[in-house]
Amino acid sequence: MPTSLLIVDDFLGPRDALALRAAGLRLTYPDLQGAFPGRNSVERIEIDGLDEAISRLVGERLRPAPPPQSHAKFRITLEKDVGRSKVHIDKAHWSGLLYLSLPEDCRGGTEFYRHLPTNSDRAPMTDAELAAAGFESQEQMNREIVGRDTCDDSKWEMTMRVPMRFNRLVMFRPWLWHTAGESFGDSLQNGRLVYLLFFEVV
User: Fold this and answer.
1) pTM value?
2) Which of 75, 78, 95, 166 makes a 20 to 30 Å CA pair with 86?
């Protein structure tokens, strides 16, 4: 009985959530255009006991996915930001984020999609699933779905959105087709600020 998505509201205590947000706003965000809209912090901030808390939530022993993953970094995304990709999957066993935009600024949320040509809501995970979808390898699948269709809105149907809410934790399986959702704001103070999580199994 696998779990695909978990949502936990008020994940941190109110003071801790505001302190984490304030710490994130003091970090360095280089002005570089990446695969996805927004900029990641150069620095990481580790939260004491986080690995154990997430492991209890998902029912698996987890540890941070090794760099160059963005675990424990912050991402700020402003309305003007544009990336090279849109719908995608992540290289991890669990992906997650903690929303840290203030309540008055929150808009949109994490979006999940169905790939219309393959009628799938996630990437094929086994050799049998790859073959059934007409692919010989994960590399071919990534090239022909993620690489080709990522920004082609005609190939995707949104199935669900987890609305952004301050201090809401969202944990999901990284092989689900997804995007970060709406970008907003014009500064660090009012933009889309999240704390990123990527885990592998111990």
Assistant:
1) 0.95
2) 166
